[in-house]
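User: Can you predict the 3D structure for this chain?
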Amino acid sequence: MTRIPIDDSNDPNVTPAPEGSPEPAAQGEHGQQGAAAPSGDVSAALRAERDDLYNRLARTTADFKNSQKRLQAEFDQRVVYANQSLIKSLLPVIDNFERALAVDAAKTDAKVMLKGLQLVHDQWISVLKQQQVAEIAPAPGDPFDATAGMEAVMQQPAPPELAGKGQVVVQLFAKGYKLGDRVLRPAQVAVSQS
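Assistant: Here is the predicted structure, written as structure tokens:
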């Protein structure tokens, strides 16, 4: 079997094929060359095939690396702008807060101010619901469940109406929130002493 040289310029046994030389003879049934094909033509054909395969590999490798860079750039851009829709939906809420802050407190009734703040709060909650954010707000008497997004921050004696019900929520200190099934912040509650 003839050895395929890697570096043809340094191999004294390889003679370059003359330009325009014919293609090598077709291989026989068992992979043997026909007797009429000179070894120079076979070497030239193998070198050409090797060079073609190397060039195709180099192009494919470059295409793959370019695709990787493009996908990484797209991923980085998605991460940077991931919250764009949330922020855009919160801009009207900020506008309404700024309008409320611009009101002269000396000239406005406290009831009107509270009503305006309630409207802004309701708008804020509406935006959160549009973004699939739900409140976690257990009421007093609800069973305490740490797996349902509740965090016990203290224990208190249970009032008489909740006595004997096991460990239940006695007081809600801060609402919790979840995005889909993922808890963003657990509700902070006081639980009954067992």
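Strands lie at 133-136, 150-156, 169-174, 176-179, 182-185, 187-192. Confidence is low (pLDDT under 50) at residues 21-35.
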